[in-house]
């Protein structure tokens, strides 16, 4: 222990990057200081990084302010540099000193240590981070010994099935470390609840994609752990996937699901947090001072987890304490450049105040968090009448209205029909959530200032700021209800429903409504899809399919009857539960909506009556109907918007469909007629389903996979052949195909005998020519695009001489199924 004065100017608690930087600068300025560390070494968070971990120095465009050096490099090299510089700088460090309480007021704080010692200081800087408070795996079996929350040395594990839970930077780096050495023979799996890696750095995501491409890491998207158990042959992990439960072998689970601030300890000091959310951060001034005067918070506890940010804050907070209150943050020049094109000549601080005050999703963020968000976002200004984006335009960014308002053109045929969106709200959230092109044209109704959040920035905001996630969800639900119910409803009409709504995640096959039940709620399908079944003679009979955007359960609410059918998830889905009494009140207030609901209910009752009337004569026909419908669900009905089906009673095997597809797409066929699955007379060839929420869009580095104006999912010319889409597609309908060579011209054929002759080169010639020229290495992703831009519609259907090939929407599946067994 290094001795010091009776009362230090500043006591710094925690020796992570923020605390080290603060202590180093205090030493450089000659301030009486002490750095308090509860372990016997510096920077415990980085010390606990896995051995050999490569530490990044991001953001690259941010200047480093610190008396300590920091460049991207190995964990060991960085720690060695800091140890040396702390010693050379005569920093006053007290090791093995765990703080148990902090009492007193500004100018005279007492810091109590475990064991009874006390330290007095005029000011206290908390740089304690959050890593000591990890989020636990709260599932059955989550407390078994095979679950751990730290990975010290990836090289210690051999011949194990290891699952990493968590897809942030820590989880990705752990997975990569465990899979780095093939000689260890580990089977490494990483789980991601979503399809995007919103919490991770782009460089880490790229490395994970490369490891996935090479087969070193198994990446499971839209998957979460459900149960850990010990089986006869060792550990097992039960997973909830998009298609239902799956069990994998698991010798070890490394849970890297984030951490939360040590709130109880900090609040006892007298520091207030921004909200009651468990993940909220302390309220801070621009100088990092908390609501308790003299107590400052920096680093991860302030909401800034990146090392370079932390080190800059450590430097800055000591400057503030030393009287340099005019110091601007290191990101000031970057933000000044971003705000320069905006009207009004406001300063960065003025813009931050306006943005934070005016926009609902930003209101619980501190100025520090808002600064970090804006580094990855773009403020923009538009004149009155100027188009922000147009209908069917690709785009997945989200816009927050800082000043002004916009109008949304809801009818493409009549631009005068618009819906206003005012200051403080957001738009573009549909493209963010679904990946679809812009659904409407949006114009500035008056001079407009917005913040455009990139998809990455928006997803990170939703993942890390609970209040922002709630606000986005609320707005998205309100707009979905208005669009779904229609009948001239206003936001005020649906406000009670939105406030009472509960978002529920439903696993594949899980029942939302059970036949015979007397519950009275209604449900809106937010993501995924549902199937409706009725019990006939003890067997479930498929009635209908409900895609995202549908609602169900209103029949029992309107007439008070019991549930007449069972509704269950076709795939992993999200539904919104709305109390039935509130829906009834809305119907009472809006007669037009009641008439519409009654008409839809009458149609469903007709189907139920039809099934009931024929229940005595169903027999094998009913079985075939139910089994065929289930087959279609299992093969894509739950997600599809357009599927190619082949009636095998009509198909003669001529392959005209496949040849026509190749001839329409530069020799690259988009379907494989013989591949795929069959049931009864129906065959589903290997061809794109054009899913409602395409899995292939996830992790496409050049954003080459997009939706066209007719809903087709297509691959643009920017494809780089990485293969991510092929791996992400659950139906195996995307393949990496060699780029076919150009056909020699007519003269080359006539004079030199090159090429296949006049006319379109055959698919087989192009494939053989590609092989001879060694072009297999130049590959592109290939999938059906529904012959977008080609007159006459899909070539496969047009080329079928017997009418065996048809393309159908989900609604069309039902008639096909009935033709196969019910009628």
UniProtKB/TrEMBL annotation:
The keyword Iron-sulfur applies. Residues 361-462, 485-604 form the Cyclic nucleotide-binding domain. It holds the Pfam family Pyr_redox_3. CDD domains: CAP_ED (cd00038), DMSOR_beta_like (cd16367). Residues 642-674, 710-739, 778-811 form the 4Fe-4S ferredoxin-type domain. It comes from the Bacteria. InterPro entries: 4Fe4S_Fe-S-bd, 4Fe4S_Fe_S_CS, cNMP-bd_CS, cNMP-bd_dom, cNMP-bd_dom_sf, FAD/NAD-bd_sf, RmlC-like_jellyroll, RnfB_subfamily. Keywords: 4Fe-4S, Electron transport, Iron, Iron-sulfur, Metal-binding, Transport. Coiled coil: none annotated. PANTHER family: DIMETHYLSULFOXIDE REDUCTASE CHAIN B, OXIDOREDUCTASE. This is NAD(P)-binding domain-containing protein. It comes from Alteraurantiacibacter lauratis.
């Amino acid at each position: 222990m290094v001795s010091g004065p009776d009362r230090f100017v500043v006591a710094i608690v925690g020796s992570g990057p923020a605390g080290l930087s603060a202590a180093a600068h205090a030493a450089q300025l000659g301030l009486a200081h002490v750095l308090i560390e509860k372990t016997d070494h510096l920077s415990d968070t980085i010390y606990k990084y896995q051995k050999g971990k490569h530490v990044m120095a991001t953001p690259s465009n941010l200047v480093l302010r610190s008396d300590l050096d920091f460049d991207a490099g190995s964990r060991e090299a960085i720690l060695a540099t800091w140890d040396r510089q702390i010693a050379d700088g005569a920093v006053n460090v007290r090791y093995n000193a765990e703080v148990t309480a902090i009492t007193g007021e500004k100018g005279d704080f007492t810091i109590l240590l475990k064991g009874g010692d006390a330290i007095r200081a005029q000011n206290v800087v908390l740089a304690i981070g959050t890593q000591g408070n990890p989020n636990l795996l709260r599932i059955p079996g989550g407390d078994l010994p095979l679950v751990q929350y730290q990975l010290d040395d990836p090289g210690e594990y051999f011949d194990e099935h290891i699952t990493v839970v968590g897809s942030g930077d820590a989880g990705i780096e752990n997975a990569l470390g465990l899979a780095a050495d093939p000689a260890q023979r580990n089977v490494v799996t990483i789980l991601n609840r979503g399809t995007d890696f919103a919490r991770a750095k782009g460089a880490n995501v790229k490395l994970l994609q490369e490891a996935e491409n090479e087969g070193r890491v198994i990446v499971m998207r839209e998957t979460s752990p459900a149960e850990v158990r010990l089986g006869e042959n060792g550990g097992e992990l039960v997973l909830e996937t998009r298609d239902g439960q799956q069990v994998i072998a698991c010798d070890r689970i490394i849970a890297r699901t984030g951490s939360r601030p040590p709130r109880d300890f900090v609040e006892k000091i007298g520091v207030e947090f921004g909200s009651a959310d468990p993940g909220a951060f302390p309220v801070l001034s621009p100088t990092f001072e908390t609501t308790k005067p003299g107590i400052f918070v920096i680093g991860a506890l302030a909401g800034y987890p990146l090392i370079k940010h932390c080190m800059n804050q450590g430097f800055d907070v000591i400057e503030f304490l030393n009287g340099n209150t005019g110091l601007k943050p290191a990101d000031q020049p970057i933000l000044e450049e971003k705000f320069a094109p905006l009207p009004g000549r406001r300063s960065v601080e003025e813009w931050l105040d306006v943005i934070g005050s005016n926009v609902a999703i930003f209101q619980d963020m501190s100025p520090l968090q808002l600064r970090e968000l804006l580094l990855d976002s773009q403020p923009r200004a538009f004149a009155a009448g100027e188009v922000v984006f147009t209908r069917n335009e690709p785009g997945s960014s989200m816009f927050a209205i800082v000043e002004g308002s916009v109008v949304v053109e809801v009818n493409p045929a009549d631009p005068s029909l618009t819906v206003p969106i005012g200051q403080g709200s957001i738009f573009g959230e549909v493209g963010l959530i679904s990946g679809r092109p812009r659904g409407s044209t949006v114009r500035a109704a008056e001079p407009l200032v917005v913040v455009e959040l990139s998809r990455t920035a928006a997803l990170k905001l939703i993942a890390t700021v609970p209040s922002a996630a709630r606000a986005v969800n609320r707005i998205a639900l309100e707009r979905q209800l208005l669009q779904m119910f229609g009948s001239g409803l206003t936001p005020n009409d649906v406000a009670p429903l939105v406030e009472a709504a509960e978002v529920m995640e439903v696993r594949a096959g899980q029942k939302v409504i059970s036949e015979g039940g007397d519950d009275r709620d209604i449900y809106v399908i937010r993501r995924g899809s549902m199937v409706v079944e009725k019990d006939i003679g003890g067997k479930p009979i498929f009635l209908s399919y409900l895609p995202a955007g549908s609602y169900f359960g209103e029949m029992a609410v309107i007439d008070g009857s019991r549930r007449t059918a069972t509704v269950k998830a076709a795939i992993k889905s999200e539904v919104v539960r709305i109390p039935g009494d509130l829906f009834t009140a809305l119907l009472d207030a809006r007669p037009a909506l009641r008439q519409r609901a009654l008409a839809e209910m009458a149609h469903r009752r007709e189907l139920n009556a039809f099934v009931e009337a024929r229940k005595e004569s169903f027999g094998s026909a009913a079985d075939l109907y139910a089994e065929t419908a289930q087959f279609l669900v299992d093969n894509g009905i739950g997600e599809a918007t357009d599927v190619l089906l082949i009636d095998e009673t009509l198909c003669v095997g001529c392959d005209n469909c496949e040849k026509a597809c190749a001839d329409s797409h530069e020799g690259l066929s988009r379907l494989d007629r013989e591949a795929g699955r069959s049931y009864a007379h129906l065959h589903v060839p290997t061809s794109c389903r054009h899913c409602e929420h395409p899995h292939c869009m996830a992790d496409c580095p050049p954003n080459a996979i997009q939706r066209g104006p007719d809903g087709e999912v297509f691959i643009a010319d920017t494809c780089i052949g990485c293969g991510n889409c092929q791996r992400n597609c659950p139906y195996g309908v995307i393949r990496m195909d060699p780029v076919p060579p150009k056909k020699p011209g007519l003269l080359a054929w006539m004079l030199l005998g090159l090429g296949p002759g006049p006319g379109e080169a055959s698919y087989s010639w192009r494939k053989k020519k590609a092989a001879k020229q060694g072009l297999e290495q130049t590959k592109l992703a290939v999938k059906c695009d529904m012959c977008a831009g080609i007159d006459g519609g899909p070539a496969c259907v047009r080329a079928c001489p017997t009418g065996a090939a048809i393309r159908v929407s989900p609604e069309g599946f039902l008639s096909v199924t009935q033709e196969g067994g019910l009628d």
